[in-house]
Design a protein that fits this description.
The chain is mainly α. The protein is built from 13 helices and three strands, in the order H-H-H-H-H-H-H-H-H-H-H-E-E-E-H-H. The protein has a three-stranded antiparallel β-sheet with strand order 1-2-3. The protein is globular and about 60 Å long.
Length: 277
């Protein structure tokens, strides 16, 4: 019943989308022949093993695995990523609502954000082998790991278009939650290093500042930000990231390591207690 309600919710806010809306190739006789050949390819076998079922419309999955740098006018996975993000969020909300019956809305929202955040999806994508199937140009460095987390969301979108909501739910439950994501570990995870550092500084009345000192664009047109952390006006750590937030978190994590080595951190301090020391 609840799954049907979620399906109707998704249908309301994500109305039925025709295949051509996602720029898949027209299903002519020639493309049918090509798809039959691809059904026998090693890549198709890998995809089938990863999914745990045989895709019906392979074109959805081809699109999900095609990065914009490799699209060459054939369409890319960004729209499927948008669709998959919404479907995945609904599936995870369904899972948490039914498995954490005594938890309030704030707790469930926080836990869902840990599950669907880009860092978690990047790891899951590599664990299931999706990184080996993503279509990227040969020259790309692929150092922006978000490529794989984005492709994972696009894959969820492809499953939704090909098999529907229930198959998406089964894939996330039986494959992702059962094998690759420990919700119990994520419950305990504290990864907001910036907040930890600021809490530590406020308790000790020590000045801590974050400053973005550089913003460059790499060969793949990605912005890379550099952040430094200053403690009492002195630079103690830095971090690079594909967003300001990511660079701040990396700099904060490095600063916490600096603090643990150079400042007295009593056992009950925020730094030690939250890091597990």
């Amino acid at each position: 019943m609840q799954s049907n309600m979620l399906q109707r919710f998704i249908s309301k806010f994500l109305p039925a989308i025709e295949i051509e809306d996602f720029q898949t190739e027209p299903n002519t006789e020639s493309t049918k022949k090509t798809e039959q050949e691809e059904d026998q390819s090693p890549e198709f076998a890998e995809l089938k093993a990863m999914l745990g079922f045989s895709p019906t419309n392979i074109s959805h999955y081809q699109l999900a695995l095609r990065h914009k740098l490799a699209s060459h006018g054939k369409g890319n996975n960004e729209r499927l990523e948008f669709l998959g993000d919404a479907v995945l969020s609904s599936v995870v909300a369904d899972f948490l609502y039914n498995n954490y019956k005594t938890r309030d809305e704030g707790y469930l929202t926080n836990l869902r954000s840990k599950i669907v955040k880009r860092e978690t999806l990047n790891v899951v994508a590599k664990e299931i082998g999706l990184d080996k199937l993503v279509n990227l140009p040969i020259h790309t460095t692929s150092h922006n790991l978000n490529v794989y987390g984005n492709a994972f969301e696009a894959l969820i979108g492809a499953i939704y278009l090909d098999k529907g909501y229930e198959q998406c739910k089964k894939f996330v439950y039986d494959v992702i939650f059962a094998k690759y994501i420990s919700v119990k570990k994520l419950e305990k995870a504290t990864e907001n290093f910036k907040s930890q550092l600021l809490e530590w500084s406020q308790k000790r009345k020590i000045s801590v500042d974050f400053e973005i000192i550089d913003d460059v664009v790499d060969a793949e047109n990605n912005h890379i930000f550099k952040c430094v952390v200053k403690i009492d006006g002195n630079v103690v750590a830095n971090g690079n990231g594909y967003s300001k937030k990511e660079s701040q978190q990396k700099a904060a994590k490095a600063a916490i390591n600096f603090v643990k080595k150079h400042y007295e951190c009593p056992k009950k301090s925020s730094i030690n207690s939250q890091i597990g020391q």
